[in-house]
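Known limitations

Files may contain more than one protein. Parsers should not assume a single record per file. Below, a two-record file is shown to illustrate correct handling: read the sequence, read the token line, then continue until end of file.
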Amino acid sequence: VWQIPDGGITRTMTESVVDLMNHQRRVGIVLWHPSAQNILLSAGSDNRVCIWNVGTGECLINFQLPELVLSGCWNWDGSEVLFCCKDKTIRRVDPRSGDIEEEAIAHEGSKGARAIYLKNGLVFTTGFTKHSERQYSLREI
């Protein structure tokens, strides 16, 4: 993680502020917590999710999901995380424990789906049908 100066980047940055090392494979998703300072979520190709305290470089919570994470989204207050996985499943997870609270089928198509929390608490998803036609859905989770 690098600290970008207030005036912007004026030279090549070679020194990181903190190195976050926990995943066994590449990291594909990095999400800042919406309300807590210095809290970062990372999801890697090893199906592991890590919630970091960036200030100390410590992995606070580390849990594994059954399948590769394609997208992730915090809810508006940061009390839940939503993941779309390669097995076409949406998973709602408690970020404090790593427990899967709810699962649902996202979209039937083979292309990856995405899901986001809306401010009113609903979940908006986008994906594809079996025939690769775009689909949208609005759900209560």
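...continuing to the second record:
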Amino acid sequence: AVVSTQSGHYGRGGKLLEKLECHGITPGKAGTAIIIHELLGISVAITAWYGCYKCFHLKSAAKIFLYLEKHSSYQRGKGWLYKRAKPITNKFPSIDPEKLIFSAAASEVGRKILAPILVPGKLAFTVLLMKLIFQNQQESALST
């Protein structure tokens, strides 16, 4: 299915591109929009992970750990994760590797639960930032 918009024809994703064009984000500006959207996503992920690391208490998760330790895959998975976390914990010895790993898992679950809010929010914020960026560029071009 091909969608016709002001700038041309688009296949899949045409509805999204059409909506973006309504907000002034043309295909030529799509690269900037994608970069902004991805930076927002990375910011949300890092913020969620940091928040979970600061708020996560291993004592409160002891029951979960006891349950998980009964499963054979838990120890293999834990070893795999510790190996991945080792460069971080070597560089920053004050970071607890177990807390780091489980806060990452908790932040991932939290972001998945909040996805119906986060995804449209990131899109709306991307559109807002794009309008501000290109409005400022147009104003500076007009003043020169």
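Parsers that stop after the first record will miss the second one. For reference, the second record is described as follows. The radius of gyration is 22 Å.
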